Amino acid sequence: MSTLNPSFTGPSEAVPQVAPAPSVLPRVRAPRPMFVAALATGLIADLLLDADRWGVSFPLVVVALLGALLVLGGREGWQRARPNAWLAVPLLVFSGFVAVRASPWLMALNVLASAVLLLLLTHFWAAGRVQRLGLGGYPLTVFFSAVNFLIYPPAVARDAVDLRGVRQHVPRLMPFVRGLLFALPVLAVFAVLLQSADVAFASAMDRVLSVPLGEMFESALTRTVGVGFCACVAAGVFGHALRRRGAREWGEAEAPPAKARLGIIEALMLVLSVDALFLVFAGFQVAYLFIGGATSPAPGYSYAEYARHGFFQLVWVSALTLALIMALARWTRRESRGAELAFRVGSTGTVALSLVILASAMKRMAFYEAAFGYTHLRLYTHVFMYALGAVLSWRAVTLWWRPERFAIGVFLTALGSVLAINLVNPDAFIARSNLELHVSSGVFDMEYLSELSTDAVPALVQGSTEMDPSRRAAMLAPFTQQLSGERSWTGWNLGDWQARRALDAAGSLQ
User: pTM value?
Assistant: First the structure.
């Protein structure tokens, strides 16, 4: 009687095949060169950015990142990237301003602008057009590009490093590990006995044991983590920019028009009623603030009360008007040429009246600044209002010409605003304006001026020549203390350099 092997399967039985689980991580082109480039870029970035404050190091890291991307993409990659390569220009400009302006506010703004531009540049490196994005497409593209930055580093490591080969060598290394564990306690016992037997040997052992191994290990661990983090960022940039594209992505085609749901009569009634309200309000504002030549707040209000009362409401009205015009332009049915013309005329009037309301808000803020001087918040609010006015004006233009280009105009306005802030040099402008106010009216806030960055030092030195010497020295003392230490070349900053020259010429820097 024969025994049957339960593991035997006859020829008629099919052995079930288990399909491998699909990988969540995407496949990567040229993973090994990308892995090496990411490690090299990560090492460069960690060496340059490991400082108390960034300076010329930041634009150098950006240049290294773009250079590695160009090399990895090759000539074909550059040909595909050329339509969107203009994004690299503001990226280099804003990263370069990190080495020009010393203000922490500006540094944060420039780093943020550089990060957004880098995310957009990598997304559109090989396909699509950034100008095809809708208004909501910009934040969504930036967000999902940042998410992809988290996905590609493990994908690059998986495709570049053969983990199966590493696992094969692990059993061969285990005897060495066990031998080391056995040898350590034996060596410790003999070392203690020999150290007590000879004074010279004991002195040598003390010198060996006095080495700060803990600090060295902490420094090495910190350096490793820093290089690893920077390498992951670089791998995310390279992987996302040179990714394999499947379905159509944002910016590869114009966004389809929305389905119109609102009739032209309803839309015109809404637009014209808003126009009538704005016209009445704008008439009061023009009569008092502009034609009347007002140089003081309204009766019964102080400067602060008049500037603040209604200021933010007026800005909100301008912003909501922009949103209303955009929504109506998207959702209103305009089936005839006359309906299109009526809608455009009414909407253009709404935008024009909104600009008058915005101008009145700026006039109110001017009263406040003339009385109390400038601060960062007041100056940045001014820039925001100018940017909002530019966006409103561009909305009026796109009502008549290329409405699909409204979003790229808003994006360029945002870039122009950041550029304008850098060119104005806020801290120097605030110092110069407030010192002039001190001369004309006696209003002086030395504590606030002393809290500005070193960008303000040349203006403070030049504008305080007629000030009491002791008061001037007290105002400049925080900057003298701040610039007294030495910094590495990676933290070099033009604002600090100009401040040192100004303080040295004034005899305040020893």
Answer: 0.83
